[in-house]
Each structure stands twice: as structure tokens, then as C-alpha cells.
Amino acid sequence: MFKPAGGVDQTILSEQAHLVASINRRGLLRGAVSLGALTMLTGCDVSNDEQVRGVLKRVSAWNDRVQTTLFDPNKLAPTYSEAEVLKPPRYNAYYPIDKVKPVDRTVWRLELTGLVSDKRPWNVSQFAAMPQEEWIIRHVCVEGWDYVGQWSGVNLRVFLEKIGADTTAAYVNFRCADGYTSSIDMPTALHPQTILATKYARETLADPFGAPLRLRTATKLGFKNPKWITGLEVSNTRGGGYWEDRGYNWFSGL
Ligand SMILES: Nc1nc2c(c(=O)[nH]1)N[C@H]1C(S)=C(S)[C@@H](COP(=O)(O)O)O[C@H]1N2
Ligand SMILES: [Mo]
């Protein structure tokens, strides 16, 4: 039987709850994550908090690789009817709604960097002039709530092709007006249900939900849908992420 040595107890697993949850959600281990399961998986006696943390990080990185391999670029996520749409959407960010600093859409530009041939920044009217598409999809926050939302805007694949992005590159990295960052793998960026959204329920996006431009993907958890985007980079180097850098599983597919 596994007996935790030294100061190791279940506390360390609850401290790392988000990683444990993502590992459990994928069903990658038989049964739920426990110190015993980690010991068997890794073949080493995880006998202190640092080792547990290291093992969880390694399992999470492996989890990213498994999810990347399993991701089907053509499989559509469920869509819903207009009657199911929550209006207005449910707000979330790393700060409360009264701290939202609206972005001035008249001066706003999307900066383009990295493996992109046409790096001229884009403004609001250029996005409005592009073909628009709408998806009614579920937003799932890692905190345990979700809602059906109706998003429209420019398909990300169409946009990437328009700016001459190297779509064989590995990542699309985002920065936002509030300092938030996130990054997604190229197969997710090219997925048919991934858009740069400018509207919600057919109305111009309201400030708290990422106006004038935010990402909406049907295949990722909420935190991988950056709002108030100001910079897009195509790269073979994985950009960081506000929550990703705080230990959340990077891939975080649904
Ligand atoms: N710029 C920025 N984007 C962000 C966040 C944030 O704090 N800042 N929070 C993320 C999280 S955790 C969630 S659940 C969704 C919430 O999006 P919503 O307010 O449109 O429901 O935005 C994501 N994108
Ligand atoms: Mo979230």
C-alpha cells in the first residue's frame, strides 16, 4: 500500500486542484488522481510536495500531447437553438465587471506579428467588411458554470489566410487590452467553429464581453477565449497565458 512519507498529504492535491481536475476530466488515469495513482504511474515514490507538483506538471504536459493527438480538426462541437441563448452572456474575468476598462473602438487596432506576411494592423471597419458567420455554442468555464451563447464575426481560418499567416506554424498567441494573454494550437485556430467575434446575439459586442474583438472557440474552455484582443501572433513558440502560467492545463479542450 502507498503510504505518504514526510509532510505529504492530500492538501497538496487540493492546492493543485485545477491540474487534478483537468487530468480527471480527460479520464487519462484509471480512477481519480491520488498520490497512490501518481506513484504507480510514475514508478517513483512521490514523497514531498515539490515532487507531487513536478509529477502533476508532467502529467499535465502529457495530457496536452494526448489531447493534441486526439483532437479531430473536422469534428463539430454541439450547437444550440436561438431559444437557448443566454442574454446578456455571463461575465467573467480575473477581476469584477465594474473594473472593466472599455476599449475605444475608434482607435483600436489589432496588431499582427510573427509568421504573417501582411503585418498591417486591422481596424473595426476592416473586420466588419469581412464575411461574417455565426455559431450558437456552449461556453464552459473551468470554475464549473456554462451557458449557451450566440457569437458572430470572422472565421479565424479565413482571417489567417487573408493576412498570409503560415498555417503550418504550431501556435496562435493572443494579447489583450487588460494584459491578459492566451495561446491556442493551430488545429484549434483552423477549426470551423473558431471565430474572432464582434457580435453577441446579433448585436455589437458589449464592453464586458470583449469588445471590439474577442476569440470564441467551441472546442476550448472559457479561459482560452481571450477578450479585448489587441495582438495576434503566429509562431512556433507557444505563448504564455494568464491562467496557463498559473498552472491550468494548457490545451484545455472540451
Ligand atoms: N482579456 C481577458 N479575456 C478573458 C478573461 C480575462 O480575464 N481577460 N477571462 C477568461 C475566462 S476565465 C472566461 S470564463 C471568459 C468569460 O467570457 P464571458 O465574460 O464572455 O462569458 O473569458 C476569458 N477571457
Ligand atoms: Mo473561465
TrEMBL record:
Pfam family, any one: Oxidored_molyb
InterPro entries tied to this protein: OxRdtase_Mopterin-bd_dom, OxRdtase_Mopterin-bd_sf
Every Oxidoreductase molybdopterin-binding domain range: 102-243
The protein, known as: Molybdopterin-dependent oxidoreductase
Superkingdom, taxonomy of origin: Bacteria
Positions in coiled-coil regions: none
